[in-house]
């Protein structure tokens, strides 16, 4: 479905077919964009290892930190390709590096094999050589916002209809309006979550990207 069709379906479900509308097309467009991003984060719907602007990072020997493309939500794997060959880059936390490689901040002897992923950047640990390029396999958000009536969500068309639940949730949750209905809002959010899953919190995202097993340590007297 395109944006025009999604808005038409929403107005039918919400009994908002006569002007003046309770909700403007602009408000609904914003909520459909939010819905698609929510769906992508919850369901990891858009995997990408082919869009060069998103998944390739050219490295420079004098630079260790690089911005991630704004659409990147989660890194699955990283491969470094250069004149000396191809190797995997493993994401680690600063805490892990402090424990197992205390000189990691100044490491220039060993080739880069580790990286630290922050919210919007990637910090390479180790020596970078001229011509090195990172190739990422990622989950990402949509590359373009819905804006024109003919625009279609990037996620699979089978999931388009389920975006309506998030928009209904948002529409009925606006306080101090005639259409405010917290029960219908909660029901629509529940249906959206049942289909796309729960939204991971920031701690879960951090643990996932660092991919480090967590163990309880015994403290001996």
Could you write a compact summary of the structure shown?
Helix content is 34%, strand content 19%. It is of the alpha+beta class and 221 residues long. Strands 1, 2, 3, 4, 5, 6, 7 and 8 form an 8-stranded mixed sheet that branches.
Task: Summarize the structure in words.
- InterPro entries: SU10_adaptor.
- This protein is α+β, with helices and mostly antiparallel strands.
- It has two domains: 3-45 and 146-201, no CATH class; 47-140, no CATH class.
- It is 34% helix and 19% strand.
- The protein contains seven helices and eight strands; from the N terminus they run ααβαββββαβββααα.
- It has helices spanning 3-13, 25-43, 52-55, 94-100, 163-172, 182-196, 202-210, and strands at residues 47-48, 56-58, 65-67, 72-82, 85-91, 114-117, 121-125, 133-140.
- Strands 1, 2, 3, 4, 5, 6, 7 and 8 form an eight-stranded mixed beta sheet that branches.
- α2 packs across α5 (163-172) and α5 packs antiparallel against α6 (182-196).
- The chain is elongated.
SSE diagram, text form:
Layout: H1 3-13, H2 25-43, E1 47-48, H3 52-55, E2 56-58, E3 65-67, E4 72-82, E5 85-91, H4 94-100, E6 114-117, E7 121-125, E8 133-140, H5 163-172, H6 182-196, H7 202-210
Parallel strand pairs: 5-6
Antiparallel strand pairs: 1-8, 2-8, 3-7, 4-5, 4-8, 6-7
């Amino acid at each position: 479905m395109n944006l025009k069709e999604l808005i038409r379906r929403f107005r039918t479900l919400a009994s908002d077919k006569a002007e003046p509308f309770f909700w403007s097309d602009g408000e609904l467009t914003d909520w459909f964009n939010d819905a698609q991003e929510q769906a992508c984060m919850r369901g990891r719907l858009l995997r990408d290892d082919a869009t060069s602007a998103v998944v390739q990072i050219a490295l420079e020997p004098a630079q260790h930190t690089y911005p991630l493309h704004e659409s990147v939500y989660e890194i699955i794997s990283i491969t470094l390709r250069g004149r000396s060959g191809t190797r995997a880059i493993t994401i680690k936390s600063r805490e892990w590096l402090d424990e197992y490689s205390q000189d990691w901040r100044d490491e220039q002897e060993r080739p880069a094999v580790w990286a630290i992923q922050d919210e919007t950047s990637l910090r390479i640990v180790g020596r970078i050589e001229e011509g090195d390029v990172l190739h990422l396999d990622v989950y990402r958000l949509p590359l373009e916002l819905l804006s024109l009536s003919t625009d279609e969500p990037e996620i699979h068309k089978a999931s388009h209809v389920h975006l309506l639940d998030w928009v209904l949730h948002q529409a009925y949750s606006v306080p101090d309006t005639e259409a405010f209905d917290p029960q219908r809002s909660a029901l629509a959010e529940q249906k959206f979550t049942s289909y796309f899953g729960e939204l991971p919190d920031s701690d879960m995202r951090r643990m996932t990207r660092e991919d480090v097993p967590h163990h309880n340590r015994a403290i001996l007297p």
